Amino acid sequence: MKIWLEVENFGPVAKGELPIKPLTVFIGPNNTGKSHVAMLLYALLTTLTKSTFPLPPLPILFRLVDEKVLNEILPKLNEILSERLKDNIERVFSSKISDLIRWGSRAMEIRANLEDKTIKVSYYISAELGKGFISKMEIDPLVKTSDISKSLSLGLRNVHYLPASRAGLLQNYRAIVSSIIRQIPYALFEGGIEIPEVTGVVADFLTEFVTKVERHTDVDVDVRAVSEFFEREIAEGELVLELRGEAKIPELSYRAKEGVVPLYRMSSMLVELAPLGIYLKYGVLKRGDFLIIEEPESHLHPDKQVKVAELLALLVNKLGLNVLVTTHSDILLAKLSNLVALSSIPEERARARGFNPELAIDKDKIAVYNFRRDKEGVVVEEVKVTEEGIPDDVFRKVIEELYEESMELYYRIQELAK
């Protein structure tokens, strides 16, 4: 699957062009639009994967589709998808499209292409203050297919978004869910259920965690292997989700040699990464899925950040997932750089030196984008990944400035000591 995205005056971003790879990494200062672009991609993808299409009930759709049928269907389908695209973007951001125009600008544009072997999907969104917006989505079948609806998903089973501040969301989700359930009997009489306003990614995350996580005995053997890596190398124990109470609300706990720890007593590191561990263990993540994780390094000691980088490599290499992460961690980026360099060493030599070739990341499978501020606003620039790894000019600059400051302080202290 090929994904290409271009934005202009969207959120904090003035301009950026982003071909998406199996592993895509967003770096840059706070409030530069990394989450905005990640959420936009989620909105584009879920317009396809979370939609049901009211196609004509023609048996031929599930056989070979001829050109005449396609010509009859596509205009209506494009119209439906264009409206759903607009609705889904506003749902994901919990904002009107016009509110997503960059401050100081009067208009924004978004272009995107999603393509696999059978179909191409093109997006175009524009908005101008005081003049409304345009939302277009067009389907272009590249070959005749036996099932249009399956092709529209571009081979994606599901798209998952793990937002920032997962620890806080999980610490409070039980109270939110319990409150909603208590309101259900009165909803008919009091005009519905009052739910706190949240973004679509947060709502989808909580919904998926509460409703879709259940024990699967048919978990893919490779998924199980990656799940075991997570529990052994990162969690150092077992994460367990059990349905409790009359409402069957999922309760998260952690089991280690020392005993069982409930969610409210778990470390922030465990709570932050628990959704990923649970998704692996209980079969929510499947081959072909798209996973977006904001700041996977949150609350992690540096040695665990290294292991998270290895986990990302396994998700891409072993499970065939498409993964996008936003990060502020120089350690995570440095480890990913080493894994790219590892791909240049033959497997036998790598094993002889104590490296695991399964963790090697091909340089063509990873893209790194730096969200950089300049006079025009935030500009998204691609960081050139080579066989030697990922150049780190972003984090290194901060570290060098700190070093120079340390040296300056050291010399001043020495002068005072004379």
Brief write-up:
The chain is an alpha/beta fold and 418 residues long. Helices cover 41% and strands 24% of the residues. It is built from twelve helices and 14 strands.
Task: Provide an overview of this structure.
By secondary structure, this protein is α/β, with parallel strands linked by helices. The protein is 41% helix and 24% strand. The chain has twelve helices and 14 strands. The protein has helices spanning 34-49, 67-93, 148-152, 166-183, 187-190, 200-211, 221-235, 268-281, 302-317, 330-342, 347-352, 393-417; strands at residues 2-10, 13-20, 23-27, 107-115, 119-128, 132-141, 159-162, 238-244, 249-256, 259-262, 290-294, 322-326, 366-374, 377-383. It has an eleven-stranded mixed β-sheet, sandwiched between helices. The protein starts with a strand and ends with a helix. Residues 53-64 have low confidence and may be disordered.
